[in-house]
Amino acid sequence: MSTAPHVATSGTPVLHEVADAVYGYVQPDGSWWINNTGLLVGRHGAVSVDACATEARTVAYLEAIRKVTDRPVRTLVNTHHHGDHTHGNYLFRDATIVAHEKTRDALLEAGLWRNPPFWTPFELGDVELEPPSMTYADELTLWVDDTRCEVRHVGTPAHTTNDSVVWLPEQSVLFAGDLLFSGGTPFLLMGSVAGAVQVLEEVLAPLGARTIVPGHGEISGPGLVDEVLGYLRFVQDLAARAHADGVAPLEAARSTDLGQYAGWMDVERIVGNLHRALYELAGAERGAPIDLAAALGDMVAYNGGRPLTCLA
């Protein structure tokens, strides 16, 4: 069964209070480069989970923060290195930027993605590269007044090689970064499909979070983990058949009915996900460097030769 494809539309961001003084900042519609962030407000300062992709979007986020607190953001946690979550780091002037040690390395290596050629043009603004200034190896704990915030590296490449989550055990709130998309197609080209399955099964599912703020899309509940796992297993099954038959990622994607996933945002990611899964089936380690230009070029081809739609 096929579903009508998603049509990208940008909307007004909303700061949702998901627990006492804990917020999820949702930027519709959550497609390419339009991410979510998180905010924890204390008596003397606040913690932000991620920044935004552009100067304008990060300025709008900071304005939304000022509507709920006049305290400065003292800590900014980056869940991974991708530009939609880190390009706005430089605007958090008073904050210590915290991330996994691999996030700092990956961010410095990637640099700023100005006018990336595979997407429709969007205006970054006068962004500056601002890498994390405090890094950790496995786990650290932040406190916002009496609220315990556990920042955890997930242990294996998944969405990227350097994913972290922020878990609030007493509130049962999970800021999942791009390990989870709500209503959007997961993207594992720079990480690992097998690794993502492992992380969702062994790290996220056991938490039993009542409230999940995904990296993109609407705030969700615990069922989101199973939804995303279903898609990842779909990709694994498709990749296994393509590998056995010697079929290339683009060809495999074009010959596949996405079924229940056809209405998700950014369906062309199936091609990038197959590039990663087939690369690993051929013997590559999880998260091993891959030909990004070739994979993204195939995604554009799958999209009818049109650049990938970005409304950031």
Q: SSE string, helix = H, strand = E?
A: EEEEHEHEHEEEEEHEHHHH
The CATH class: Alpha Beta
Q: Structural class given helices, strands, pairing?
A: alpha/beta
Share of residues in helices: 25-40%
Largest sheet: 7 strands, mixed
Q: What's the β-strand tally?
A: 12
Strand content: 15-25%
Placed side by side, the strands forming the largest sheet appear as 1-2-3-4-5-6-7
Q: What is the annotated CATH architecture? A: 4-Layer Sandwich
Q: List the domain count as a whole number.
A: 1
State the shape: globular
Based on CA atoms alone, the radius of gyration comes out at: 18 Å
| Terminal residue distance | 31 Å
CATH superfamily: Ribonuclease Z/Hydroxyacylglutathione hydrolase-like
Tally of alpha and pi helices: 8
Write down the overall mean pLDDT: 96
Q: What is the CATH fold-level name?
A: Metallo-beta-lactamase, Chain A
Low-confidence stretches: none
Short note summarizing the structure:
With 312 residues, this protein is an alpha/beta fold.
